[in-house]
Every structure is written in C-alpha cells, then in structure tokens.
Amino acid sequence: LLQLYAPLNFLGSIYSSIRTSLVDLEHMLGLLDEAVEVADPAHPLPLAAHLKDAPPVVLAFQDVHFGYRKDREILHGVSFSVPPGGLIAIVGPTGAGKSTVSRLLFRFYDTWSGKVMIDGHDVREYRQADLREAIGVVPQDTVLFNDTIGYNIAYGRLGATQEEIEQAAKLARIHDFILSLPEGYKTRVGERGLKLSGGEKQRVAIARTILKDPRLLILDEATSALDTHTEREIQAALRAVSAERTTVVIAHRLSTIVEADEILVLGDGLVKERGRHADLIARGGLYAAMWAAQDAGQDAAPGSGMEASAP
Ligand code: ATP
C-alpha cells in the first residue's frame, strides 16, 4: 500500500504546485482582477443584424461606470444617445476611454453600473453572437489574409457573388485600384502577397463592412497621416458605409467629424463637452483648443495634433 501511496502523494504535490503556478500566472496576467466573463442570457431577445432587414440601431449609454480592474474605474458615468442612422464622434486625449466605449458596445465586458442600450434594451438581453453580427467595425489597422484581394473583401459576407463584391469595392473607392493590379480581384495580398498601403487596407475593410451590412458601425480611425488625395478617397468611402447607418466614430483626426450629429469630448472617463462642431468651436473650450492645435500642425501631420495637444 505504501508503494502505491508514495507515487500518489508525489502526483498530489505536483498537482498542487502546478495549481499554484497557474494562479501565479493568472495574477501576473491580471486575469483574476479582470471583469468576469460575460454570459448569454437564458432567454435572449432577437436582434436583427442587417440593414436590409431592419432599420438602423438606436443606441444609448446611460450613466455607464466601468473599469477593467476593481481598483480603477475608467468611465465615471458616461451618457449619450444616437438616433437611428445618426453619427456620434468620440474624441479626447489618449487613454480617455474612447476605445473602452466601443468594447462595451460589443459587450466584451459588462458595465459596473448603468446600461448600454441597443434598440431600447440592455445589451445583456441579447446573445453575444447576435450583437457581434449586428455591429461592423472598420479598425485602425486591418489584417489581410494571405489570399486574393477578392476573398479579403468577400470575408465580410462569405458567399457573396462577384457582382456584390465589386459593388462594395466601388462604394469603398477601391475597385479601380484593384483593376490596376496584375491579376485584378485574383491578386494575392497579405504577408506573402502584395503589400497594400494603410489607406488601401482601410478601403478593403470598408468594402468588407459594406458587404457585411451591419445595423451599427464603429469606425476606429487611423491616426496615421494620409496624403490629401487618399484622405479624400477614404472620406468618400467612409461616407458610403456610414450613410443611413447608426455610426460611432472613435476619432483621431478632427477633420473627419465636422459633420457629426454630436461630438462627445471625453477626458478622464468623463464627458467634458458635447455638441456639434460649430457649437463647440464657439464655446472656446477643450474641443476648440484641440481644433486650433490640429490646424496648426495640419501641414506636417494631420493625425498628430489632437493627441499631442490634448491635456
Ligand atoms: P487611445 O486614443 O490611445 O486609443 P483611448 O481613449 O481609446 O486611448 P482606452 O483604450 O479606452 O483609451 O483606455 C482607457 C484606459 O483604460 C487607459 O488608461 C488604459 O490604460 C486602460 N485600459 C485599456 N484596456 C485595458 C485592459 N484590457 N486592462 C486594463 N486597463 C486597460
């Protein structure tokens, strides 16, 4: 019996030291302090995903408090609402909590208190998969698959016809560029293929999102400076994807949000100012100062002014 017991005892001690190491590792990664995993409700509400099937999303944040770790609140009571088809732009210095707002929309995390509402219901009432289907993102930096440029666009809705892919590419102002490539839509791109510029990749992402046809759109603007022609093409492409769709712009270049229905100036997790561009300029506060600073630096780098100047 002793012979049997010794190895078991040995295994037991290995098990306990592995467990301790795992807990240490979790602590190291900060996982134990993170918000608990979000869970789907037992009886989820249906949520239409596509603009072709339902009107654009009605979106609201109601006094949202949230932090990634228990000891550090990041959003201290943020409220705003966007009517169906409206466009809200969120600006503010780096670390203000702009991307946190978009992560809460996807319900990557739950709020500490307050609500994120879509179509008049708390996002916790929907299935996560349905939320992610209804929201489209044009990210700062798009990852391209090692495949054809056509496939990279079709990924927005696998099964789309060539005609639909080309239609989306035209709206995203990337069709003519694709036709100029050696093998057109069959040209391979990505790490092992043709490298696209930041502006071209962004337009591929926009075409992808046009195909996906989500009811809510998040534009996470690139900070990088673009030449005037590219900037204009991207603006036209963004207008095509955001028209008619409820849109949240995480803005880094102020020039893109002049036409926003509402601009939310976030600072230290609070809404410091809100309103339309002209009102905020007239007010002569934080936004006006960001605008003036960006204007001053415009010739050198259109993306840098706001980040550098904000307090
Ligand atoms: P930027 O303009 O630089 O992208 P931002 O306004 O989007 O900044 P957020 O990314 O929302 O800022 O971050 C807000 C705060 O939350 C920052 O202080 C950041 O360090 C912190 N934060 C962001 N993600 C996490 C995370 N996963 N765990 C812990 N803290 C985080």
Please, could you describe this protein's structure?
The protein has 311 residues and is α/β, with parallel strands linked by helices. It has eleven helices and twelve strands. It has a six-stranded mixed sheet, with helices on both faces. β11 and β12 (270-275) form a beta hairpin. α7 runs parallel beside α8 (228-242) and α9 (277-283) packs across α10 (286-297). The longest helix is centred in the N-terminal third of the chain and has 28 residues, at 2-29. It is globular. Mean pLDDT is 84; it is low at 16-36 and 299-311. The structure holds adenosine-5'-triphosphate. This is Metal ABC transporter permease. Keywords: ATP-binding, Membrane, Nucleotide-binding, Transmembrane, Transmembrane helix, Transport. It is found in: Cell membrane. It is a multi-pass membrane protein. The chain crosses the membrane at residues 1-18.
Write a concise synopsis of the structure shown:
The chain has 311 residues and is α/β, with parallel strands linked by helices. The chain contains 11 helices and 12 strands.
Order of helices and strands: HEEEHEEHEEHHHEHEHEEEHHH
- Gross morphology is globular
Kindly report the oligomeric state of this protein: single chain
Mean pLDDT: 84
In what order do the strands lie side by side in the largest sheet? Answer: 6-9-10-3-11-12
Computed CA radius of gyration, to the nearest angstrom: 23 Å
Query: What is the helical fraction, as a range of percent?
Result: 25-40%
Strand content: 15-25%
Largest sheet: 6 strands, mixed
Uncertain spans: 16-36, 299-311
User: What's the N-to-C terminus distance?
Assistant: 71 Å
Q: Give every kind of bound small molecule, once each.
A: adenosine-5'-triphosphate
Query: Helix segment count?
Result: 11
Which structural category do the helix and sheet elements fall into? alpha/beta
Number of strands: 12
Keywords: ATP-binding, Membrane, Nucleotide-binding, Transmembrane, Transmembrane helix, Transport
Subcellular location: Cell membrane
GO cellular component, one term: plasma membrane
Main location: membrane
